[in-house]
Write a structure and sequence with these properties.
Layout (H helix, E strand, L loop, with lengths): L1 H41 L17 E7 L6 H9 L8 E7 L6 H6 L6 E5 L6 H11 L4 E5 L10 H6 L6 E11 L8 H20 L9 E5 L13 H11 L3 E13 L4 H21 L6 H35 L4 H21 L9 H24 L17
Parallel strand pairs: 1-2, 1-4, 2-3, 5-7
Antiparallel strand pairs: 4-6, 5-6
């Protein structure tokens, strides 16, 4: 009996050690090993450009899905009108998702400048708005622009120029996280966005990115699906569905998109829960692309960029419980648990920190980490319950970027 008890305790310790190690292994691979492997594969390669010699500037549709964006839609439309592109080759289409705050009235003021509006009779979410725009779009290329971001005038042409390569089906802009003041937003968020953009640049050189920027991306119109499920994420799905049809997707460094950081971590938390839950549901819907025998390096990048990173959020809570168990018998585990609890405490304090007072840098960083991991785990729970809601509450980014 004593031997069996010792064996049982040994099994418990091994399981606990495995649970503690899992998020470290997933995170280490996703954030360190995978980028390193991309750089190794990229060594000596030239950018994959297969420009069509007869390519001409295509007609485009600039699509702006909007829900209750009265505070920013006027500025956004002015910015879109200022984009460097021939007016006779562009269509500007705003799809109002049954807005009730005066958004529609503001959009109608631009009708004499060529801005069109499609109003949905009932609220259905961003993806449904994008689906409704398929039939109303006339451009060969559909460019989706978030209603609350800033696209510099010179960013559009480089994005469209990517389609001179007939193998490209989707082109994504490069997000730049900005803030209006030192007290607004979180520098850790800016660092994370920068890392993500560098990773997409590497994936582009290897072959194809596995997710586009929801703020600013373009798709060939014939790849658009008017019946795409409304509870899924179309910007994430666009490169996946393009790959299935033989196209690759690229990130365009010169196509800048200025995204103002959210002023409060609490807002960032809710945004991450929403976007990741939709991302998980989308990946499950397109799960055949995870098969490396059929999709080769694309499947590897999808596993590495998305699945490994998301598994960190799923396994961290279990690692915490396992570390608490090991702390009963190990001083090292006790020390690690104390550090983890202290970090979580400081992070939670940062999340509740007054928005108008800038917290210390280390506190804001820990707050971003805690909010991201908590949101990631809640997104997994939402995905398991099948609660990826189709409607969305846009992240309000007031002011100019």
């Amino acid at each position: 009996m004593h031997l069996r008890a010792e064996e049982y305790r040994g099994v418990q310790m091994n399981v606990a050690l495995l649970l503690v190690a899992l998020p470290v292994l997933f995170g280490g691979y996703a954030y360190l090993v995978y980028p390193l492997l991309l750089r190794i594969v990229d060594t000596g390669r030239r950018p994959r450009i297969q420009a069509d010699a007869e390519w001409e500037l295509p007609s485009i549709t600039l699509l702006i899905p909007a829900y209750n964006e009265a505070a920013s839609i006027g500025v956004t439309i002015e910015g879109v009108l200022a984009l460097d592109y021939p007016a006779d080759r562009r269509q500007i289409l705003v799809v109002s998702d049954a807005s009730d705050d005066g958004t529609d009235e503001i959009v109608r003021r631009f009708a004499d400048r060529g801005v069109e509006m499609l109003r949905l009779p009932s609220r259905g979410g961003k993806t449904r708005a994008e689906n409704a725009a398929v039939a109303a779009s006339r451009g060969e290329i559909v460019v989706t622009i978030d209603a609350s971001i800033t696209v510099p005038p010179s960013s559009l042409r480089p994005l469209i120029a990517a389609f001179a390569d007939p193998t490209v089906g989707v082109a994504s802009g490069r997000d730049v996280s900005v803030s209006a003041s030192a007290s607004e937003g979180n520098e850790a968020e800016a660092g994370y966005v920068g890392f993500e953009m560098r990773l997409r640049a590497l994936e582009t050189r290897i072959g194809s990115i596995v997710g586009a920027s929801g703020c600013f991306f373009a798709t060939r119109r014939h790849l658009q699906d008017a019946d795409f499920p409304a509870h899924l994420s179309k910007d994430f799905a666009a490169p996946l569905r393009a790959r299935r049809r033989g196209y690759r997707s690229v990130s365009v460094d010169a196509a800048l998109c200025l995204v103002r950081r959210t002023p409060e971590l609490r807002r960032e938390y809710h945004r991450k829960v929403r976007t990741m839950a939709r991302g998980l549901a989308t990946l499950w819907h397109e799960r055949d692309l995870l098969d490396p025998l059929r999709y080769g390096s694309f499947a590897w990048m999808l596993w590495s960029h998305k699945v490994a990173r998301w598994l960190v959020f799923l396994t961290v809570p279990f690692a915490g419980v396992a570390l608490a168990y090991l702390a009963q018998i190990s001083r090292i585990a006790q020390g690690l648990l104390a550090v983890a609890l202290a970090g979580c405490g400081v992070g939670m304090l940062a999340i509740r920190w007054p928005a108008h007072v800038p917290p210390p840098a280390i506190m804001s960083t820990l707050g971003f980490v805690v909010a991201s991991h908590a949101a990631g785990f809640m997104a997994w729970l939402a995905a398991f319950r099948g609660k990826a809601a189709p409607t969305w509450e846009p992240t309000r980014r007031t002011g100019s970027a």
